[in-house]
Design brief:
Blueprint lengths: L1 H22 L1 H5 L2 H21 L2 H24 L5 H14 L2 H4 L7 H14 L17 H13 L10 H18 L4 H21 L4 H25 L9 H11 L5
C-alpha cells in the first residue's frame, strides 16, 4: 500500500510540473542552462540541511532537488531526447550492473572491496569512464575534488600501505611550506607548497575516515557562531567592533565558546 501511495505522489508531482510548464511564464521559459545555477544552490542547501541533521529541512531540500531532476527530464522530453522513464531505467540498469555481488555471482568481503569493484566496473561500462580519474567532474570544489581523486586512485591500489605514514607526509609538506614562505619565494611556489600541504591533510582525513569538507564546514559554522557573539557583545556594550583591541575581542570569543551549538 505504501508503494502505491508513493507512486501516486510521484504522478501528482509530474502532473503539477506539466501544468506549470504550460501555464506559468517563469516555468515555461526555463532551460537546462538557466536552471543550472539554481540546481547548484539547491544541492548546497540540501548539504547544509544534512550537516544539521534536520529532518524537516532535509525533506524540504530533497523536494527542491527532486523538482530540478524532474524539470530537466521534462525539458528532455519536450526536446524528444529522453523523459523521466528513461532516466529511471538508465539508473536501474546502472545500479544492477554495478552491484554484481547482489545481482550476479561476484563475491566480496567488505565495503572496501565493493568500492574497488565499482571503479573497475565503471571503466568497463559502455560510455563510461575511460580512465581512473575520468569521472571526477572538473567543476567540483577543490577540496571535494581532491578527496574524490584520492578515493579513485586508492581503489586501484595507489594508496598508503600504512596509513600512519601519512603523518610524516603532512609534516614534510608543512616544513616545505614554511621554508618557501620564510625564504620569500615566488607566489607560484607558495601556492604549490600550500596546495601540497592541503592535499596531504585531505588524504590523512580520508585514511582515518574523516571527511575534510564536512570537517571544515563545521569549523566555519563554529567560528561564525562565535564571532557573531563577539559582534553582538560589542553592540550590547555600545562598542565599536573595529576599535576593540585583539585582547578584548579574544575575551568575547572565549566567552562565546560556552554557547557553542
Amino acid at each position: 500500500m505504501r508503494r502505491e501511495e508513493q507512486l501516486k505522489s510521484f504522478e501528482k508531482l509530474l502532473d503539477i510540473l506539466d501544468i506549470l510548464r504550460e501555464q506559468c511564464p517563469w516555468d515555461a521559459k526555463q532551460t537546462n542552462h538557466s536552471l543550472r545555477p539554481n540546481t547548484i544552490e539547491e544541492v548546497y542547501e540540501l548539504s547544509d540541511a544534512l550537516l544539521k541533521d534536520d529532518s524537516d529541512e532535509i525533506k524540504k531540500e530533497l523536494g527542491d532537488v527532486l523538482l530540478h531532476v524532474l524539470f530537466y527530464a521534462k525539458i528532455g522530453d519536450e526536446k524528444g531526447a529522453f523523459d523521466i522513464k528513461d532516466v529511471c531505467d538508465r539508473l536501474a540498469e546502472k545500479l544492477i550492473f554495478r552491484h554484481p555481488h547482489i545481482f550476479g555471482g561476484v563475491k566480496v568481503k567488505d565495503a572496501h572491496e565493493v568500492e574497488q569493484n565499482w571503479e573497475a566496473i565503471k571503466l568497463k561500462e559502455k560510455g563510461g569512464n575511460k580512465t581512473v580519474l575520468g569521472g571526477v567532474p572538473r567543476g567540483l570544489p577543490s577540496m571535494i575534488k581532491a578527496y574524490r581523486i584520492q578515493e579513485k586512485v586508492a581503489n586501484v591500489g595507489f594508496d598508503w600501505k600504512d596509513k600512519g605514514d601519512v603523518w610524516a607526509k603532512v609534516s614534510e609538506e608543512l616544513g616545505e611550506l614554511q621554508e618557501v614562505i620564510e625564504s620569500d619565494d615566488t607566489q607560484a611556489r607558495k601556492e604549490e607548497e600550500l596546495g601540497d600541504l592541503l592535499f596531504s591533510l585531505i588524504n590523512m582525513g580520508r585514511l582515518y575516515g574523516v571527511d575534510p569538507d564536512t570537517s571544515l564546514e563545521r569549523t566555519n559554522n563554529k567560528f561564525a557562531h562565535r564571532f557573531n557573539y563577539v559582534e553582538q557583545k560589542a553592540n550590547e556594550n555600545n562598542e565599536d567592533l573595529r576599535s576593540l583591541t585583539l585582547t578584548q575581542m579574544e575575551a568575547y570569543y572565549q566567552e562565546a565558546k560556552q554557547f557553542d551549538e
